[in-house]
Amino acid sequence: MHIYGSGRHPGDPLSDGSRMSAGLADRNGMPFGKWQDRFIDWFRDLDFLQKPGVETKAARDIAAFVSQPPRGGERRGNNG
To answer: What CA–CA distance (Å, rounded) separates 14 from 77?
Structure first.
């Protein structure tokens, strides 16, 4: 998650009296206008943009997590 310190939303008034209409558009190179690029970067990092049938990093990470022994009496999987 990214939280930005400044930015505008659709419908916000602009200095010329009009209202902003493209809330998620690129805003002169400001990082909050690049959320779509960060989303694609995240999906690439998790290998979600591979060809079908290729195991993703997300799947490997989950498999590694569930294969660990439970901690502190916790039970995992199959709710039972």
So the answer is: 52
Task: Please give the biggest Cα pair distance in the chain.
Answer: 62
Q: Could you tell me where the DSSP H helices lie in 1-80?
A: 35-45, 57-66
- What average pLDDT score do residues 16-41 get? 68
Q: What phi-psi label fits residue 32: left (phi over 0), alpha (psi between -120 and 50 degrees) or beta?
A: alpha
Q: Is 19 helix (H, G, I), strand (E, B) or coil?
A: strand
Q: Cβ atoms within 10 A of the Cβ of 59, count?
A: 13
**Cα separation, 8 vs 23, whole angstroms:** 7
Identify the three-state secondary structure at position 59: helix
**pTM, rounded to two decimals:** 0.42
